């Protein structure tokens, strides 16, 4: 129970259905004041109090589990090291994988519980992960890294509801979080300044910004880790491009500490490679090339594609060009609304 409306209604629904439910809030920071405060967070003291009040209204036991050390190691440190390596991680995806459905699930099973239920907007049908009934709130992408075993012990009570329905139900149940705003951004970056957060841990490291078309150095930066592929704002380029059009980040080279920029058209890719595939869908690992769809970012566009496995690498050929494809993000494959599997993007051309 994060302290938000979704997990509160999820808990209420499964308790009302007759399950023996215990509410658990995760303490993810040794110093909660260093994380977000107020409605923008999901790791704050206020959130733990909101979660406790919701559990009291529902009438279920409530506990706080300290996961701060594990969260720092598996999510925060992973976030920093991925940016340092020139990749763009998704910390929410990593939290689902390593904390909610690994650390929490392992502890829950050891204590005799059968499953972990969350307020994610996704559906499970016969063990298959599917998109939510609310396409605007669908979170199947950030759950796409879960294994079949983890999904077999997961419950997503909100998958058939829209967010508006969830809020109405919360109000009808007397849950005070009914109108609480959704959390956004990265919960462990207190002010939302990702570049400043990384600079505080990786230090300043001046390097060049290079125009891909001319090879000219068009600016400097204080750390290549502060950029992501597809970024347009905050580049601090010293002079405009010859064609007068905006420039975007095309690539990040951590070894030479070089950020390369160029026109939007240069961002287009049609071929993607991804590593560490997880096959959690109804067909398992495909033995032959597979026609399906792929999502490359949370709430991002969906592309038709042809996917094929070669050893430990997943090769994805897109039907149309995609832009802003960043190494470190997940590529989640779908057959209709069902998740087939996922892998971590390692390259794109």
TrEMBL record:
The gene is mnmA. Its EC number is 2.8.1.13. Residues 137-139 are annotated as: Interaction with tRNA. Keywords: ATP-binding, Cytoplasm, Disulfide bond, Nucleotide-binding, RNA-binding, Transferase, tRNA processing, tRNA-binding. It comes from Sinosporangium album. This is tRNA-specific 2-thiouridylase MnmA. Residues 196-262 form the tRNA-specific 2-thiouridylase MnmA-like central domain. The keyword Zinc-finger does not apply. Belongs to the MnmA/TRMU family. Catalyzes the 2-thiolation of uridine at the wobble position (U34) of tRNA, leading to the formation of s(2)U34. It comes from the Bacteria. GO terms for cellular component: cytoplasm. InterPro entries: MnmA-like, MnmA-like_C, MnmA-like_central, MnmA-like_central_sf, Rossmann-like_a/b/a_fold.
């Amino acid at each position: 129970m994060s302290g938000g409306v979704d997990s509160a209604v999820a808990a209420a629904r499964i308790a009302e259905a007759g399950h023996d439910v215990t509410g658990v809030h995760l303490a993810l920071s040794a110093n909660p004041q260093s994380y977000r405060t107020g409605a923008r967070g999901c790791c704050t003291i206020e959130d733990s109090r909101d979660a406790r009040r919701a559990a009291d209204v529902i009438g279920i036991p409530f506990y706080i589990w300290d996961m701060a050390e594990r969260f720092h190691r598996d999510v925060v440190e992973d976030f920093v090291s991925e940016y340092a390596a020139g990749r763009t991680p998704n910390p929410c995806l990593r939290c689902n994988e390593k904390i909610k459905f690994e650390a929490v699930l392992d502890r829950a099973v050891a204590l005799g519980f059968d499953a972990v239920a969350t307020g994610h907007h996704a559906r499970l049908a016969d063990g298959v992960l599917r998109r939510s009934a609310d396409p605007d709130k669908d979170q199947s992408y950030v759950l796409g890294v879960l294994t079949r075993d983890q999904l077999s012990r997961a419950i997503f009570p909100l998958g058939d509801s829209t967010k508006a329905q969830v809020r109405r139900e919360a109000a009808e149940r007397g849950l005070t979080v009914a109108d609480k705003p959704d959390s956004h951004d990265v919960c462990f970056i207190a002010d939302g300044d990702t570049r400043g957060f990384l600079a505080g841990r990786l230090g300043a490291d001046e390097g060049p910004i290079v125009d891909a078309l001319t090879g000219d150095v068009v600016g400097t930066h204080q750390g290549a880790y502060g950029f992501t592929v597809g970024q347009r704002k905050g580049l601090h380029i010293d002079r405009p491009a010859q064609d007068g059009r905006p420039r975007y980040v095309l690539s990040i080279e951590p070894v030479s500490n070089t950020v390369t920029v160029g026109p939007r058209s240069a961002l287009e890719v049609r071929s993607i490679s991804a590593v560490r595939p997880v096959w959690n869908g109804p067909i398992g690992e495909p033995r032959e090339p597979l026609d399906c769809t792929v999502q490359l970012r949370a709430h991002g566009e969906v592309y038709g594609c042809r996917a094929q496995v070669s050893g430990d690498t997943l090769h994805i050929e897109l039907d149309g060009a995609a832009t802003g494809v960043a190494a470190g993000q997940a590529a989640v494959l779908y057959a209709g609304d069902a998740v087939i599997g996922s892998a971590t993007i390692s390259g794109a051309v």
